[in-house]
Amino acid sequence: MSSFLSRRLNEQAKKEADEAAARDAAFKGFVTDEADTDADETSKDAGIQDLRAETPSEVSAAQPRRAPTSSKVAALRKKIRTKLLAHPDEADQWQRGDVEKEQLLLSRLQTILDKAGADLSAFELEELKEGLLNDLMGFGPIQPLIDNKTCSEIMVNGPQQVFAEFKGKLTLTDVSFDDEDHVLWTAQRIVRPLQRKLDRAHPMVDARLPDGSRVHIVSQPSALNGTTITIRKFPEKPLTVDDLIRFGSFTKEVAEFLEACVVSRLNIVVSGGTGSGKTTLLNVLSAFIPDEERIITIEDAAELQLSQTHVVRLETAPPIPGGDGITGSLIIRDLVKGALRMRPDRIVVGECRSGEALDMLQAMNTGHDGSLTTVHSNSPRDAVSRLETLCMMAGMDLPVEVIRRQIVSAVDLIVQQARLQDGSRKIIQITEIQGMEGEQVTLQDIFVYQTPDQKGRGPSHHGGGELKPTGFRPKFIDRLEENGFRFSAKTFSGGNNQFG
Question: Is 333 exposed, middle or buried (0-12, 13-18, 19+ CB in 10 A)?
């Protein structure tokens, strides 16, 4: 056993020594600072001859490898990266596809390469250009995944492991970063434009990409395998109600019912688990809000994309870097309280996950009808319990019965969203909060997702089903009719089904 360990240690030491030697050869005599003296320039010129003589041969494009670039190009890219910027955050607002900015960076790169006299093949030069443009104007090696419209999620588990989700299936990609510094460079490029900080004092941060995609980053020492970046991509074109009907998320009749509920200013909570499509559904429901109304959206990371004219978008803010950890911070609860003073017709909260739930209920109960929000829960009954728990986190020390009555008074409808076993995302329950019986909240399902071979009345989690009416008409049907919506008896009975 000892000889085996010794052999493995010797092999590892030799490998590290070879990599260090190759790196030293690539960097030897490379241009460092424009302020160097003439004597330094002379030594650089001598070193550049070594660079041309000692750099490794071109890596064959056909050679199978997981790394996106050869070690030679990776080393050069790391050395040059910061020298192409006038200041560290110069390119923070630049994006791939801006031809003028790309040409500016490539011109600076050519100047450095000419001065260094670096001997690069055509393939290596293109590899270097593409890598630098992705690092400085995009998001490093994962830029192709971000550009890929069929990719819905990206998971960077340290430098050497990147997973991506395509059509609901996770796949280990051949994308990798050069090292931990390379991952951190990409992470900093994501958070810096948002004035958020990622360092030892703030090792975890929520952020978003310019297109609204949600980003969560955890760095060392908490991330043991290296900095972890998880990106929930936002569709380039927001999904519409017609898209969801076409995908089978719900029927046309259900869409008309939900539109009537939103226009009639019912307070709606979208409930569901992680990745079930709550935000997408919230965006679709928000699209039903009449264009003449003033809408205020409140989110941790701005994701909602509303097409109405009068929309005010608010996003939480972290504390001022280097301060006391409090100054400059704005949480969801602060924004909800502030929104009440902004004359809103509608308040849309991306997600209630803490004490802001109580403020949201207060808003719903004090004239701000038609508000929308989401919560994490697995059923409408769980959603009520979840709201109770969140309200207790507000620190008001209210009795549970008082909180329940607040919920019953405020919330009209719970829409349960779920990710089914086949990977599809569908509405599986639409439930009315009818009132209280004793100390219990009374719920009534209006629509439930059922499969043809299903036994029992609960919602199914298998594909191939349909959202069917239960046969019960909601108590607020008169309110819908007052706003000009008329529904036939078939809408809520559905003809022949196991509900009636």
Answer: buried
Tokens representing residue 178 in the block:
């050069």
Per-position DSSP letters for 11-79, written without gaps between them: HHHHHHHHHHHHHHHHHTT----TT--HHHHHHHHHHHHHHHHHSPPPPPTTS--SSSS-HHHHHHHHH
- pTM, rounded to two decimals: 0.71
At 67, list the tokens.
């790394």
Quickly list H helices, 393-468: 400-410
* Angle at CA of residue 342, ends 340 and 343, nearest 5°: 85
- Distance set, CA 255 to CA 285, 376, 395, 479, 486 (Å): 9, 22, 38, 17, 14
Taking only the tens place, the pLDDT of each residue in 412-461 is 999 999 988 888 889 999 999 999 998 899 999 999 998 887 777 778 88
Sheet holding 169-172, edge to edge: 169-172, 162-166, 151-157, 228-232, 214-218, 204-208
Token pair listed for 351: 């997600």
Residue 341 has pLDDT above 60, yes or no: yes
